[in-house]
Automatic annotation (TrEMBL):
InterPro entries: DUF3772, LSM_dom_sf, MS_channel_C, MscS-like_channel, MscS_beta-dom_sf, MscS_channel_2nd, MscS_channel_C_sf, MscS_channel_CS. The chain crosses the membrane at residues 213-230, 251-272, 292-311, 332-349, 361-380, 412-433, 439-466, 478-502, 522-546, 567-590, 596-625. Belongs to the MscS (TC 1.A.23) family. SUPFAM superfamilies: Mechanosensitive channel protein MscS (YggB), C-terminal domain, Mechanosensitive channel protein MscS (YggB), transmembrane region, Sm-like ribonucleoproteins. Residues 785-839 are annotated as: Disordered. Residues 137-195 form the DUF3772 domain. PANTHER family: MECHANOSENSITIVE CHANNEL MSCK, POTASSIUM CHANNEL RELATED. Keywords: Cell membrane, Membrane, Transmembrane, Transmembrane helix. This is Small-conductance mechanosensitive channel. Its main location: membrane.
Length: 839
């Protein structure tokens, strides 16, 4: 675990995210990769059988130590890589023979025969093929054997690690163990002091040390100054050059310069160590302590730097955590102290591993540090809880639904931190030291990794802002969110290592990932998938480029109508995607014949379940080929009028005249009745109905209506407008204007203009447009009023006269005129909607 801690600290301090891909590659590098660079050759199966026998005995007896099993697993992994490489032996020759055999045609079925020459040639080729495939089969068999042994070794190692994790040891609360811890620590440093004393009191070594001592002291002093003052100098330099990071470019420069807070103190420590080495005092114990000290200081510097980035002093809109200045100050303090805790635990545990400390000494020295770490984690969790509450309140004010989800996740994370802070010291106090360490150390490392992800996501956001010149809400844009997801995905191996996974475990996952997933006789590996994706992407891009060229350059120069152009462009898109898929499958070497039966059975079930979708798809193809309707056409379907805006594979989008979208399945357009008002031509007919009072001169009315129709600029004179006397209505003579318009899209505008002109001309000519009249009689008014008979008759007569007048007034006020009724009924007679602004 401590070796892992050292590697993680180095990565966090020096590599950061640009190096994560390189480190991830190094982590998953398979042992024996050097063999993969050499041409395939036959393995030494005698040496392998010897190792396989020893490995089988070790797995069977399970008496070897963990270190022995790890070494055995490394050897097995190397041999497995050799066998994987040997599986490609004779691959070119095998491919050639298989092509020759295919050229001979299929082998004759039972009871059939073929020519003697072809049969002999087929037999010879099959014999050669069997000979060439023999070493491949042997390599595959050995690979399977090595792979199974590796699985068994990994299982044994995991079982032992689980047993050690739950093993109960000495308690740090037992006073009898306290002296062991102090004695072990004293012995370690006493060994270092003894080495220095020996160098000073030994005349030979003293004569060797004396000339080097001035230079060593100078290096040590320079290193000490950098260690103590380097961080402050880096901060002063940042404030001097960039007082305020207003723009993203300045912020990024400040971020890069802030790395000096790590580098300068660490360079100081390196100079101090180099000075000690130069002095000649370096021996076994001191060398081990200095090596541990370097990693310890680096861990602390990285943790402090992360705390400074997460809880900055400046108040600006780039805060990674929504906290007040006082909370950020406390966060910097607790983050730095947690860095000290991690560094101290690393230092003690590395000293214990190298010095052979007893379990009692380990527990006694680490337990106080665990308690302090738990207290600091509790304090830090309270600060983080304030951030999640503030984020939830801001999201609630903004009406964002994701705010509640993030708040719940954050609160759960805070509770887990508190549980670790309390649980780890309790476990250690009752003797479960390894369980406590296995819980606390990974939690602290995970905090550091999360801090790195947050900081790097902030860097990505600033780079995105600098590139796009955006400022408001950039952190919630798609690209920064995807970048955060990628960062989290790339950090998964490090989280796995922090929580106890072995490098061998990650290597095993990588090996199995490269081998691919087998589905029946079909194997899908990363290489196959990448080949398919790249070829399909290229085909898709070529298809889109071809569509764009046709749509914008070639087809506009033809005499095709817009619907035909769209149909051609859509057809090219479907054909191009189909060909891109077919070429990608072929290029990747995917043989789908083994899935033909399964695909056939699935297609039957899918066909029944998706028959409506298939029907709409086929109907869409028919619409694109036959083109009964096209984009821009004014159609009527199921009583709905609108303009066709888009014809897709499944449905057609129609924009109605009230600017709402109507989505109609294509099957309804193919199988139903559709009226297309503008198919081939925009010429259409308008019908305007007019009623006049009885006794009006009908010929005069006909002449006036003819003048009104012919005077409108949208009416065509060939054929001329027609005025029809349609009949005798209940209260009027009914007339109609029937005229052909230049553009039927303006039918409502034309009807409205004609109605205005008709009303004006009728007023000038004294022609009356009648209204409906109704008489209402009360037959027993005395029963309603309760008056005397004479008074009732008088009142009834008065009521009757008054009711007739009131009824006429109400009808005149509420009933529509005949011209208005005619205008409202034009759609029912086939006039339809209107275009332009009058729709």
């Amino acid at each position: 675990m401590m070796a892992l801690l050292r590697h993680l600290a180095l990565v966090l301090a020096l590599a950061f995210m640009p190096a994560l891909g390189v480190v991830g590659t190094a982590i998953v590098a398979v042992p024996g990769a050097a063999h993969a660079q050499q041409p395939p050759s036959a393995p030494d199966y005698d040496a392998w059988n010897n190792l396989a026998g020893r490995a089988a005995d070790a797995i069977e007896n399970q008496r070897a130590s963990l270190a022995s099993f790890e070494a055995l697993r490394e050897q097995l992994a190397e041999w497995r890589s050799v066998f994987a490489n040997a599986e490609s032996i004779n691959s070119s020759a095998i491919s050639t023979l298989e092509a020759q055999i295919r050229a001979l045609g299929p082998a004759p079925a039972d009871g059939e025969s073929e020519g003697a020459d072809i049969a002999s040639q087929r037999e010879a080729l099959n014999k050669q093929l069997s000979e060439l495939r023999a070493p491949v089969r042997q390599a595959e068999l050995a690979y399977s054997e090595a792979d199974e042994m590796i699985r068994n070794v990994d299982r044994i190692i995991r079982e032992r690690q689980a047993e050690e994790f739950l093993e109960r040891g000495p308690s740090p609360l037992n006073p009898a163990n306290w002296s062991d811890g102090l004695s072990a620590l004293y012995t370690t440093f006493e060994n270092v002091r003894a080495e220095m004393s020996g160098a000073l009191y030994d005349p030979v070594r003293r004569s060797d040390v004396s000339p080097r001592l001035p230079a060593a002291i100078v290096l040590g002093l320079i290193g000490l100054i950098l260690l103590v003052r380097g961080r402050f100098w880096a901060e002063f330099l940042v404030r001097l050059i960039m007082p305020k990071a207003v723009t993203s470019g300045k912020w990024l420069i400040r971020f890069v310069m802030s790395l000096g807070e790590i580098l300068m103190p660490f360079i100081g420590v390196l100079l101090m160590v180099q000075g000690y080495v130069l002095s000649g005092f370096l021996e076994e114990h001191s060398a081990r302590v200095l090596d541990i000290l370097l990693t310890t200081v680096l861990i602390f510097l990285v943790a402090r730097w992360l705390a400074q980035r997460l809880f900055p002093r400046e108040d600006d809109n780039r805060l990674l955590l929504r906290l007040e200045a006082s909370d950020r100050k406390a966060g910097r303090l607790y983050g730095g102290l947690l860095g000290v805790i991690i560094a101290v635990m690393h230092f003690i545990r590395e000293l214990a591993d190298g010095g052979g400390w007893s379990p009692e000494a380990r527990v006694v020295m680490v337990f106080p540090v665990m308690v302090l770490a738990g207290l600091l984690l509790i304090r830090l969790s309270r600060i983080l809880a304030k951030h999640y509450r503030s984020s939830a309140e801001d999201a609630e004010d903004a009406g964002a639904e994701s705010g509640g989800y993030r708040s719940r996740i954050g609160n759960l994370f805070v509770k887990l931190l508190v549980a670790v802070a309390i649980g780890a010291p309790l476990l250690a106090s009752i003797g479960y030291y390894k369980a406590a360490v296995g819980l606390l150390i990974p939690s602290l490392l995970s905090l550091m990794l999360l801090a790195v992800i947050l900081v790097l996501r902030g860097v990505v956001v600033e780079i995105y802002v600098l590139a796009t010149r955006k400022s408001e809400g950039s952190s919630d844009d798609l690209f920064p969110m995807l970048a955060g997801f990628v960062l989290a995905l790339m950090s998964l191996p490090f989280f796995a290592l922090a929580w106890g996974a072995r490098v061998a475990d990650l290597s095993e996952l990588w090996v199995r990932f490269k081998r691919g997933v087998t589905l029946g006789d079909l194997t899908i590996s990363p290489t196959i998938f990448l080949t398919f994706a790249v070829v399909f992407a290229i085909g898709f891009l070529i298809t889109r480029l071809l569509q764009g060229t046709l749509k914008n350059s070639l087809l506009p120069k033809t005499r095709m109508e817009m619907g035909a152009r769209d149909a051609i462009v859509s057809g090219v898109g479907y054909i191009g995607i189909f060909l891109a898929s077919l070429i990608a499958v072929t290029s990747a070497g995917i043989d789908l014949s083994s899935l033909a039966i399964v695909a056939g059975a699935l297609s039957v079930g899918i066909g029944f379940g998706l028959q409506n979708i298939v029907s709409n798809f086929v109907s869409g193809i028919i619409l694109l080929i036959e083109r009964p309707i096209g984009q821009g056409d004014w159609i009527e379907v199921n009583g709905q009028h609108g303009t066709v805006r888009e014809i897709s594979v499944r449905s057609t989008r129609i924009e109605t005249f009230d600017r709402s979208d109507l989505i109609i399945p294509n099957s309804d357009l193919v199988s139903g009745v559709v009226t297309n008002y503008t198919k081939g031509s925009t010429v259409g007919r308008v019908i305007v109905k007019v009623g006049v009072a009885r006794g009006t001169d009908t010929r005069r009315v006909e002449a006036i209506l003819h003048e009104v129709a012919t005077a409108h600029p949208m009416v065509l004179m060939n054929p001329e407008p027609t005025i029809l006397f349609r009949g005798f209505g209940t209260d009027s003579y009914d007339f109609e204007i029937r005229a052909i318009l230049r553009d039927v899209n303006f039918i409502m505008n034309v009807g409205s203009d004609m109605n205005h002109e008709i009303a004006k001309r009728f007023d000038e000519e004294g022609i009356v447009i009648p209204f409906q009249q109704r008489d209402i009689w009360l037959r027993n008014p005395e029963a309603l009023t309760g008056a005397s008979k004479g008074d009732a008759q008088s009142d009834a007569a008065g009521d009757r006269n008054q009711t007739r007048e009131d009824g006429a007034e109400k009808v005149a006020a509420q009933g529509p005129t005949k011209a208005q009724e005619a205008q409202r009924m034009d759609d029912a007679d086939g006039a339809g909607g209107a275009g332009g602004d009058g729709r």
